[in-house]
Design brief:
two-stranded antiparallel ribbon; mainly alpha; 2 strands
Amino acid sequence: MKRRNFLHTTLLTSGAIAISASASSELKEITSRPTFNFMTESHPNLKLINDFFKAYAANDLDAIKNILSEDIKWHIPGSHPLSGTKIGV
């Protein structure tokens, strides 16, 4: 499988993270190159993950809503009152 196809099918198929327009254009630019150096270049999805954890730590619900898909599914394991599948931010 070509690296571009791997990146496209692996990194763009996440239902949980909504890629912003700027991140999407960055990803297109990166994947259109013949090679992508994972050791020196930062992938747009890594920026989204870092932004999510910063917003989560700051309890910034608006920022979290901008990063995650509105129909995200969360599964909390266990048999306590909070366990089960939750939908939405």
